Amino acid sequence: MSGAPVVANLASRALLRAGVMLALALGAGLAHAHKGSDAYLDVQEISDVATGASAASAVPAERNFRFALSVAIKDLDLLVPVDANADGKVTWGEVKAATPLLLALVNEVVSLALPPGQQTDATACRLNWQSDGVERRSDGAYLRFAAQARCAATQALALRYSLLKDQDATHRLLVAGRVAGQDLLTTTSPLQTAPLALGVAVAAVPGAYSASSGVFAGTPAIAPPSGRWQALRDYFSLGVHHLLQGYDHLAFLLALVLPLRLNLRSGSSAKANTNTHPKTTATVNETGNASGNVWLALLRTITAFTIGHSITLMLATFGWTQASPVWVEPVIALSIAVTALLNLRPVPWVRVDVLALLFGMVHGFGFAGLLQEAAAPSGLLPWALAGFNLGVEAGQLIAVSAWVLLSQLFVAGAWYASVVVRGGSVLLVLMAVYWFWQRVG
Length: 441
Prior knowledge:
This protein has 441 residues and is of the alpha+beta class. It folds into two domains: 3-30 and 239-440, no CATH class; 38-225, no CATH class. Helices cover 45% and strands 17% of the residues. The chain contains ten helices and eleven strands. It has a six-stranded mixed sheet. Strands 3-6-9 form a three-stranded antiparallel sheet. A hairpin with a 2-residue loop joins strand 4 and strand 5 (140-152). It starts with a helix and ends with a helix.
């Protein structure tokens, strides 16, 4: 026996063992991998015509706003020891004990941007956050905070947000509400240096304000959110972010494309992996593709997944159907395990594109959770849905393209089936089983 095959075999086993350890390490922190770190802010202007306006000018001297902020306890625990005894369970007593520190934190990192001349003015428009209870969302318990602000009509309403700036670069704040008679739907990140505009500033001159429409005239100091296009743009970005951050969605995509030998050097004539060794056969059940064209198989499988999750994303977002995360999350993990197992032991009558369509519908419910919890105003919901879905597809395209490029390093290797397909599928099964166990526990 020559030394080269022995070395290759040992290297493959070492790679597999290292991959197993990595999979278990990743799985330990990603039980709810499809739901990232998000906080939610609701902003409502509760008085269009505030005190101080004269009948002649119809210009309010002040405007009143109500704010409601929801932040995950698990996120706050990164900054304040809410789970004081570190037992993994937060009690109401621990929340009450940590509330003074939490309020101090929130008042520091979530505030209104003030003009330079008003920063030291005690009567200026400010937020004074107060505790407002606990609520349950799909990924766990959240603390609610409430505040009201009375602001001069000449002041632009803008928010500074820096929660988790140094702890989690992927964190997002989803903002919804109604200001000056206009629906508001946008997002921001703690890494965004400029304040987030929520409303315009106006000059206090006669005719600058319409009490009937609640709309201000004048030139804003900070450009306000621009309605539909703002929602479309922001939620497109959020969709890309959500897909690329959703490790379970990425794992399912990898399980779908792993058996395809997507060799760019061979172009459109590339064939599916047809290694016939009984212990290493890892085709895509021929992907139902008689011609063996793996690029067509890739297009058909990814398109089926897209159609599947787009259907349920739309249905759930508009409230036409409902699905509880209690069963959606475990089934998403199960979808990865089943697909990866079929890579190891193909079943001739199972078509992978049909599998992608059916499991894609379950993944769509996972995507819909974020849109539902963002509580988008009905007038902007279709635009947010369109932007988010397009963003998910763009993120999916980025992920698959990245895999195609990465796989060029080893796709031509004789050991692709045994190490990459078989080893990778084993790792995916291990991660999926761990996620399933965590989500049903």
